[in-house]
Write a structure and sequence with these properties.
CATH superfamily of one domain: SH3 Domains
Radius of gyration: 32 Å
CATH architecture of one domain: Roll
Order of helices and strands: HHEEEEEE
CATH topology of one domain: SH3 type barrels
Largest sheet: 4 strands, antiparallel
Number of strands: 6
Structural class: mainly beta
Distance between the termini: 98 Å
Shape: rod-shaped
Oligomer: single chain
Strand content: 25-35%
Helix content: 10-25%
Amino acid sequence: MANRRKPTFAKQTVEEKKYPAEEFFKEKGPKETDPKETDKAKTKKEVKPAVEKTVIESVRLNLRSVPSTEGNVIKVLEPGTKLLVLDSGPEWSNVALGDSNVKGYVMTKFIK
């Protein structure tokens, strides 16, 4: 029993280890794509035509710099003011005044 050998283990350093996920996280070079496909990706957002709406008759409406009641008031709009709606959401609409280049945000529920 004195001649019994101790088992030996191969030494591995961190640099030598290969992890299965290593290949997954490697950066890959740019993919070759069809130019037509990349043009489609750039134009995913559908462009909607501007719609003319009017401030409802019973309110004076604040035209704001950002879509929030915390935004600065650019102008107070009188009832019946014509607006060009550039984009509209459930709470706020991005609008331009028909007679000038003034743009801002109004609450959607106050225009028709």
